[in-house]
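Input (structure):
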């Protein structure tokens, strides 16, 4: 009796552990496991009751699946009264349970797709680009990224949108305040490749820049090493963006005013500049280290690079960029060469 009691207790413990293990998974998966157990049990019972009609357990399971799905091929059916009675019970309850499971599966899929479209689902992959703010600039940026790097995943974060505007393009949308940890963690900033923070130009410059810097601080607090590009409207806030850890700052107002000024003196130059930037592929224009060309003249370095189909157009020394310097300009080891890979 003691041995039987111990075996019974061990069985109950294993069963309890199994139930606990399954309960950790989503309800739809639990229903799936329960449905599979019912079908297998029914197949095993039919095999025991009708061994001639169902010589293997697989044949019994086949009958259970065909019956539960209401297909009813009619290739096999119980012949004895006991087998028919069991089949009646299974049809009344098993088939209904199967129908409920399929309906639950469909509704779960619809709810999941709806939550993805509303930006309620977090992003779980890595090495992606996070773009914060939905506007015309972010829309064009996403379009160019998809055209040039279709393999790069993009996550759009915005608080004003009610649904994903680019769901057909495969863009993952996260709705929420980008200044909050919860929102950026849903965008998986911890494993992001780059974060681009755009400015909301419908607000005042000071208010927008303050929001941008707050978002930048939140991003750097979650992932200090991620490369961040921020758009700043007011020149006075550039130093604060640098203090907050911005890796690259785009002064959109200064950039546009410079293009407008050049257009005043050189009519049509704005279109030409846009065409140049549009035709350049990603990484085609870049900075390269000048350490290997230390103490050489600009003319000599330009000629050596030209032999490798690389066009050098300028030199960055510290924060100063010297465009097309004189041929005798001496390259220093800490310089960076502005080049175009042809």
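Output (sequence):
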């Amino acid at each position: 009796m003691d041995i039987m009691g111990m075996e019974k207790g061990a069985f109950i413990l294993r069963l309890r552990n199994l139930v606990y293990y399954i309960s950790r998974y989503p309800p739809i998966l639990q229903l799936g496991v329960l449905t599979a157990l019912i079908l297998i049990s029914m197949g095993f019972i039919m095999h025991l009751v009708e061994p001639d009609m169902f010589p293997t357990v697989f044949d019994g399971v086949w009958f259970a699946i065909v019956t539960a799905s209401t297909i009813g091929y009619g290739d096999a059916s119980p012949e004895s009264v006991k087998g028919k009675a069991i089949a009646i019970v299974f049809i009344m309850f098993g088939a209904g349970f199967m129908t409920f499971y399929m309906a639950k599966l469909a509704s779960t899929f619809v709810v999941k797709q709806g939550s993805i479209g509303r930006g309620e689902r977090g992003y779980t992959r890595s090495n992606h680009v996070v773009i914060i703010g939905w506007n015309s600039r972010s829309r064009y940026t996403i379009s160019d990224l998809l055209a040039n790097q279709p393999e790069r995943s993009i996550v759009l974060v915005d608080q004003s949108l009610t649904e994903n505007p680019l769901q057909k393009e495969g863009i993952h949308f996260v709705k929420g305040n980008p200044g909050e940890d919860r929102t950026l963690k849903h965008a998986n900033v911890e494993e992001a490749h780059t974060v681009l923070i755009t400015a909301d130009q419908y607000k005042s410059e000071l208010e927008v820049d303050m929001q941008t810097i707050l978002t930048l601080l939140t991003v750097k607090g979650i992932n200090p090493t991620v490369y961040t590009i921020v758009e700043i409207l007011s020149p006075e806030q550039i130093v604060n963006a640098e203090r907050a850890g911005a890796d690259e700052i785009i002064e959109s107002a200064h950039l546009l005013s410079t293009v407008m000024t050049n257009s005043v003196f050189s009519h049509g130059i704005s279109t030409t500049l846009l065409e140049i930037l549009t035709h350049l592929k990603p990484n085609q224009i870049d900075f390269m280290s000048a350490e290997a060309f230390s103490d050489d003249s600009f003319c000599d370095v330009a000629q050596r690079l030209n032999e490798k189909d690389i066009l050098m157009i300028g030199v960055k020394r510290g924060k100063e960029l010297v465009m097309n310097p004189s041929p005798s300009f001496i390259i220093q080891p800490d310089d960076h060469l502005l080049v175009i890979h042809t």
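Notes: Residues 283-341 form a domain with the Alpha-Beta Plaits fold (CATH 3.30.70.1450). Strands lie at 129-132, 154-158, 172-175, 194-197, 227-232, 248-251, 285-289, 310-317, 320-323, 336-341.
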